[in-house]
Amino acid sequence: MAEPGVAPRAGAAGSPRIAIVGAGPVGLSVALQLRQLGSQAELRLFDAQPHAGAATADPRVLALSEGSRQLLQALGAWPADAATAIRSIHVSQHAAGLASLPRVMLRAQDSGLAALGYTVRYGELLLALQGAARAAGIDVRYGTPVRVQPGDASARLLADGDGSGDAQPVPQDFDLAVLAEGGAFHDQRQRELHRDYAQTALIGHLRCDRAHDGLAVERFTEHGPVALLPRGADYALVWCVPPQQAQDVLRGEPAQALQALQRLLPACCGRALELRLFGSYPLGLNARVRARQGRTVQLGNAAQTLHPVAGQGLNLGLRDSATLARLLAGVPESGLDAALRRYELARAPDRVALLGLTDLLARAFTWGAPPAAALRAGALAALSAAAPLRRALQRRMVFGWRG
């Protein structure tokens, strides 16, 4: 909620009324950027959480690219003290029967950067964004679950459930609705682009006997990728396995899980000493072909839910938010449709590239045909040897695919 004495900013004559549904990182970043760019739009933010602190204890660890850090820093919402830098990424596959396996090393210094990205806990990022929103006088109406009825010339917000908030001004019409509340794959309705990967992500914390020095690891196995993200002195873990194996690991002895994970890791990690698993969730692709319906735009998980391989989901959502805010700033209500068309064209290359790339990576390394492992090894070897291609791919992953 807005701080006492700080009223939500009313729009100037002719400025659009914009509703943002979802006060997570993507929704708050849209509102902050619109204000920073001098937009006179009347903004209203709605969130189903009962209060601002409800999600700040979320322990999930996020991988944010250097491009995302720059965006958040400009908004005054970067939790620098809580972030761990990713300076290099080791990419390889685990394949039985191959004597020598190539690996690709991505290094920040090759692109003239201090870091390729950072890890930060979801709750820490959300607290920083909430603080920036309060400082900007942005009002969030918590305890207000809503659903949107899209229209060609407006968007109608309707109450979705009872809500616990003290203000629930719905039904209400807006010139534009931005949906930034998407939920997780297993909670979503099926969209046009849908694939169940038959994988479950085990998330947890791993301590090894070798200091990571800013190294992240993406290890592809026959059952799914294993990602280690530097977090403090240790690693945050995302271990993708078939659903039944996930249940066996969670119910089994911790020592057995540690041994099974050790067998999958590259030598650069050293010896795994301690594994703590916090939970699991199913993985899939669930995306809209077009992330816009008339005067309603979907961002983040409301537009596309991706496999966590390469850690691109939130970064894509933040780039979506930056482009949308830039194209909406200063636009009167009469110019919204043209601005939204420009938004769709501008974001298409990045969306299409990452939808295709994450889907390919999630599936290609699990193909079990005899030549597949050798072909994958050849592809990694070629990428490792082609420095210009490797640097180009690295910058795309950090700053996105631009048309």
Question: How are the SSEs ordered, and which strands pair?
Answer:
Elements: E1 17-21, H1 25-36, E2 42-46, E3 61-65, H2 66-74, E4 84-86, E5 88-93, E6 103-107, E7 117-121, H3 122-135, E8 140-141, E9 146-150, E10 155-159, E11 172-174, E12 176-179, E13 193-208, E14 215-220, E15 225-231, E16 234-241, H4 243-251, H5 254-264, E17 272-287, E18 292-293, E19 296-298, E20 304-305, H6 313-328, H7 336-364, H8 370-385, H9 387-399
Parallel strand pairs: 1-2, 1-12, 2-8, 5-14, 12-19
Antiparallel strand pairs: 3-7, 4-7, 5-6, 9-10, 10-11, 13-16, 13-17, 14-15, 15-16, 17-20, 18-19
Condensed summary:
This protein folds into two domains: 17-55 and 125-190 and 294-360, FAD/NAD(P)-binding domain, CATH 3.50.50; 61-121 and 191-285 and 362-399, D-Amino Acid Oxidase, subunit A, domain 2 (D-Amino Acid Oxidase, Chain A, domain 2). It has helices at 25-36, 66-74, 122-135, 243-251, 254-264, 313-328, 336-364, 370-385, 387-399, and strands at 17-21, 42-46, 61-65, 84-86, 88-93, 103-107, 117-121, 140-141, 146-150, 155-159, 172-174, 176-179, 193-208, 215-220, 225-231, 234-241, 272-287, 292-293, 296-298, 304-305. It is α+β, with helices and mostly antiparallel strands.
